[in-house]
Amino acid sequence: MSVRSLLEARASDDSLALVAREKRWSWTEYVAASRGRVAALARLLPASGPRHVGVLLDNTAEMAIQLAAAGWGAHALVGLNTTRRGESLLADIRKADVSVVVTDATHRELLDGLDLDGVVVVDESFDWPVDGPAPSASPSGSDLFMLIFTSGTSGEPKAVRITHEKITFPAAYLTERLGLTGDDVHYVAMPLFHSNAVIAGWAPAVYNGAAIALREKFSASAFLADVRAYGATYANYVGKPLAYVMATPALPDDAENPLRLVFGNEGNERDIAAFGERFGCRVVDGFGSTENAVVISRVEGTPPGSLGQPGPGVAVFDPETGLECPRARFDAAGGVVNLEECVGELVNTTGMGQFAGYYNDESATAERMRGGMYWSGDLAYRDADGWIYYAGRTADWLRVDGENLAAAPIERILLRHPAVSEAAVYAVPDPSAGDQLVAALVLTGALDADAFGSFLAGQGDLSSKGWPRFVRVVDSLPRTATNKVLKRELQAGPLEATWTREERGTTYR
């Protein structure tokens, strides 16, 4: 399948397709508008070379129409991150070979002063046709639909090649797996320049004919009001939105809403359970990345702390030896006793999976594809029954007093405390050798230094080396536009510890 084939199937569908603020479009109107965009852009794009349209927009109706326009196959869309600035934004535009940028008054000034030689900028004053002829292009599943930049948590963002089948396959899969139908309303508040919103929010609706209800930018305080106003039955998320919504004041009628299903990744177990109970819906959490080469599914029976069962070919390998890591062994308290040998990198041993490579970055693609396998950059370990447990990014491999530690398991333990809403564990240099641990915490309840130390003492699966040396209580954590924590910003800033533990002690002051 191609995205074009999905759009053609909706061209005569008069049911509701798109809701943005007070405006509504039927599928017939939405598909026609997308054809009009293709016809107008064809006059602006170069006759030869990459035909790439950069879109610098929030989740507006124009953003959704531009997505559909790219589906016809006459050009590819480039999702430009609205949080990028100056030379960083310009570098993205250049790397992606963008010839036309579509923007609006909200973001037009981000382009001011940039050397956009040969780039045409189109804003809301442009007179878009309401319809146009179907372009002659006939894209296949392997053709380029979109370029999506990675979040950039571990370096400069890379442009991931998103093919048509990388949209249509998960659209069909999620529709079937989650039981989505044309009667649903998909609430899409995650940014549409990123893969989660496109693949988990927009694409299934194009496949099954559901309506798409847009929020320009995610708002925790507006979430429930939006769900009720739009009649939303389904929502997607990535990162911490569950925690953000749960931090809003609870009301007795929170469960009186049409929402029945929420799907996303990186939610923690406490928030997943509490969100479903509070709002009377089912929350399905998975694991994935923009590259989508490693698939892990949270299925029935998934143990606490686990991501779930790996898909075919997914394993945990030692990046130094190139061999599969031994399975994790646990002590009576649930702590991993062989962390140094069982933690490795998540790989797809069968090849690229749905990863189609990075655009204009052969070295980064080669780094991912070593020895015929896809290396994700994510650390994990696997138990005797095959369940996978996340251990962080490769930069989250820490060394304290000669012992290797992974950040993610420590973060999961910290999140057990009911007052801790968010936790980020990272390293600062030890004056002697190795690392000292810092925990940055966002609190939603009372917690002092003594209570924190007592809490850690009660966690039988926490290694003595895993006690943070420094604790920072902060109002918020630095994050990307897709809610991933930027630990390098925490490391680069001043330490400013709220509580400090003596080097060999167990109390905080």
Automatic annotation (TrEMBL):
Note the SUPFAM superfamilies from the entry.
Acetyl-CoA synthetase-like
Question: Looking at the record's lineage, which domain of life comes first?
Answer: Bacteria
- InterPro entries of this UniProt entry? AMP-bd_C, AMP-bd_C_sf, AMP-binding_CS, AMP-dep_synth/lig_dom, ANL_N_sf
What positions does the domain AMP-dependent synthetase/ligase occupy? 10-359
**Keywords, sorted A to Z:** ATP-binding, Ligase, Nucleotide-binding
Which family does the record claim for this protein?
A: Belongs to the ATP-dependent AMP-binding enzyme family.
Q: Which GO terms describe its cellular component?
A: plasma membrane
Please report the organism this UniProt entry assigns to the protein: Nocardioides marmorisolisilvae
One biological process term from GO is: long-chain fatty acid import into cell
What is the protein named?
Acyl-CoA synthetase
Transmembrane ranges?
none
Checking PROSITE patterns in the record gives: AMP_BINDING
Q: Where is the organism placed in the taxonomic lineage, from the top?
A: Bacteria, Bacillati, Actinomycetota, Actinomycetes, Propionibacteriales
